[in-house]
Amino acid sequence: MHIVLAILLLIVALLSVVSVIRQLKYKNVFALAFSAISALAFGFFSIATIISEIAG
Could you read off the pLDDT of 35-46 as tens digits, one per residue? Predict the structure, then answer.
């Protein structure tokens, strides 16, 4: 069941990365900061969950 959570977190992290690229194009620093923070947070938790599931 945790692998589903990891996949959902990974999808959100990927969408956040798309948002980072988009905000770089628009030069919106405030939205860029929040997108980058969310990409890092969701990416960390998705990878940590996947490693936790693999390790047992």
Answer: 999 999 999 999
